[in-house]
From TrEMBL:
It holds the Pfam family TctC. The keyword Membrane does not apply. It comes from Achromobacter pulmonis. Residues 282-306 are annotated as: Disordered. Residues 1-22 form the signal peptide. Belongs to the UPF0065 (bug) family. This is Tripartite tricarboxylate transporter substrate binding protein.
Length: 322
């Protein structure tokens, strides 16, 4: 027994125990990336673009698996319950930890069950209106909403999704009443705005920017701090006159709680290297995704700030989802 304890102590001191060895060898097999939204969503696009480049750096393939549903909760729960061994990651918007825990009555995971690894890309929501609405600027929408409170409506990709919260952040600050029409994703919502079924929508910029640049939708403003690459003539909400407004969202990579810090840091570095490649950056920007990687600590700090901001909006509008 004494000899076994001495051998174990020697292994720990030398950093050569079985656990340390597993970290040193990581990755030794393919890595699974669970995408919490459907194929073709902004996050899915970002994950597939980045996965190929990261796989080349790590010398192991990243296998993308879509597990959509419930605002990202299904995929998030699957990863939260996965082994914290560095072979399962979650790709989802930051909202799965900044918004979902506050609005869903029943949630089978906690925000702290997921460790932030890195932001793959920032993305905007874009406030758009159909040509038949006659609304081309945020000032015109403001005037229309004040003229007949509750008569104007807007579409989003669903209850509690980024577009919904981005619009409510604006409406609550401006004291406006505009009816929310939630859809099951930004794509069907976009189609109804194009068809004139709903006059306006606050929707993912990667989904609607091409329609704005083609003149099929009027872009009033984008939610973040930078303009859309695909529709550069559309101002930010601040540029359109809403002082202090910033609703930047991020497509994130998370790991299960307990994943070794060395693995989290290595994945962060591999993603940052991938995002620095001109070909990867060009592909992301072509889909209106803005790569801005940060350290895990910076990412965690930003998530805490965003959680506080969105919780204030959620409490103000009394939003809850079953």
């Amino acid at each position: 027994m004494k000899s076994q304890l001495l051998a174990l102590a020697a292994c720990i001191a030398a950093g050569t125990g079985p656990y340390a060895h597993a970290q040193d060898d990581w990755p030794a097999r393919p890595i699974r990336v669970v995408v919490a939204f459907p194929a073709g969503s902004p996050g899915d696009t970002a994950a597939r673009i980045v996965a190929e480049a990261v796989g080349q750096t790590l010398k192991q393939p990243l296998v993308v698996e879509n597990r959509p549903g419930a605002g990202g909760n299904i995929g998030a729960e699957a990863v939260a319950r996965a082994a914290a061994d560095g072979y399962t990651f979650l790709q989802a918007p930051d909202t799965v930890v900044t918004i979902n825990p506050a609005i869903y009555r029943k949630l089978n995971f906690k925000a702290e069950d997921l460790t932030p690894v890195v932001a793959l890309a920032n993305f905007n929501q874009m406030l758009v209106c159909g040509p038949s609405s006659g609304l081309r600027t945020l000032a015109q929408l403001d005037a229309e909403a004040r003229k007949a409170p509750g008569a104007l409506s807007y579409a989003s990709g669903g209850q509690g999704v980024p577009g919904h919260l981005a619009m409510e952040l604006y409406l609550s600050g401006a004291g406006l009443n505009v009816m929310h029409v939630p859809y099951k994703g930004p794509s069907p919502a976009t189609q109804d705005v194009l068809a004139g079924q709903v006059p306006c929508g606050y929707l993912a910029s990667p989904v609607v920017a091409s329609y704005v640049s083609a003149g099929k939708l009027n872009g009033l403003a984008v939610s973040g701090d930078t303009r859309s690459v695909q529709a550069p003539d559309v101002p930010t909400m601040q540029q359109a006159g809403v002082a202090g407004y910033d609703a930047t969202f991020r497509e994130m990579l998370f790991a299960p709680k307990g994943t070794p810090a060395a693995i989290v840091d290595r994945m962060n570095e591999a993603v940052a290297q991938a995002l620095a490649r001109p070909d990867v950056k060009q592909k992301l920007q072509a889909n209106d995704l803005d790569p801005r990687p940060e350290s895990p600590e910076q990412t965690a700090s930003r998530l805490r700030d965003d959680t506080a901001k969105w919780n204030a909006v959620i409490q103000k509008i009394h939003l809850q989802v079953n």
